[in-house]
Amino acid sequence: MSKKYLDSNVWDATQARLAYIFSEFDNVLVAFSTGKDSGVMLNAAYKYAKANNLLHKLAFYYMDYEAGYKFSHEYAQRTFESMPECRRYWLCLPITAACAVSMHQTSWTPWEAQQKAIWVREMPTGDYVVNESNCPYPFTAGIRGYDGRIQFSEWFSSKYGKTAVLVGIRCNESLERLAILTSSMRVNMYNGVRHSQKLNESTFAFYPIYDWKTEDVWVANGRFGFDYNRLYDVFYKAGLTPHQMRVASPFHQCGQESLRLFKAIDADTWAKMVGRVNGVNFTAIYGGTTAMGWKNITKPAHFTWKEYAEFLLSNLPPETRNKYEAKIAKSKKHWIKEGSARSPDFIAQLEKEGWKIRRPGKIGNRGHKVKEVVFIDEMMDDSEVNDFYRAPTWKRVCIAIFKNDTNCMCMGFGRPSAQMRKVEKALKQLEESQNESAV
Question: Is residue 277 part of a domain?
Answer without folding.
Answer: no
